[in-house]
Design brief:
alpha/beta, three-stranded mixed sheet, two-stranded parallel sheet, 31% helix, 17% strand, globular
Length: 128
């Protein structure tokens, strides 16, 4: 197993997993169909989100951090771009969470597949 997790909330990142905004939001039609049910304050602009996200990823890369992406998974939705709360990094492996929104229930399993593919240890899973 690769040791790539850490408890730290303040040390420099070496590697980070992100969900691409393009794969989470998919397109403007998908946003239009889903944003209200997810309790967004307003409808996001796909075009603006793509631009802002590219800037965000570039800022992270400028620090020397390796950026890895969760793959597209059609069972996950728009909120999957907030991937930090679907799993928790610890020094002993990842803890897969139990999502409160029904629309997010498949996110931990989707992340688990990527962690296993990249030999990131799974410490456990929070269950209902």
């Amino acid at each position: 197993m690769i040791k790539s997790t850490c408890h730290s909330e303040y040390l420099s990142l070496k590697t980070v997993y992100l969900k691409s905004i393009a794969e989470g939001f998919r397109n403007q039609e998908h946003i239009s169909d889903n944003w209200k049910d997810l309790n967004y304050i307003h409808q996001p602009s796909f075009k603006d989100a793509l631009s802002e996200y590219a800037t965000f990823v570039n800022l992270i890369r400028q620090t020397g951090c390796e950026v890895r992406f969760f793959e597209e998974d059609l069972k996950t939705g728009m909120d999957s771009v907030y991937c930090r709360d679907a799993s928790i990094a610890t020094d002993y492996g990842m803890i897969l969470c139990n999502m409160g929104k029904n629309q997010r229930s498949d996110e931990p399993a989707a992340q688990k597949q990527i962690f296993e593919k990249n030999k990131v240890r799974i410490l456990g899973q929070i269950e209902a």
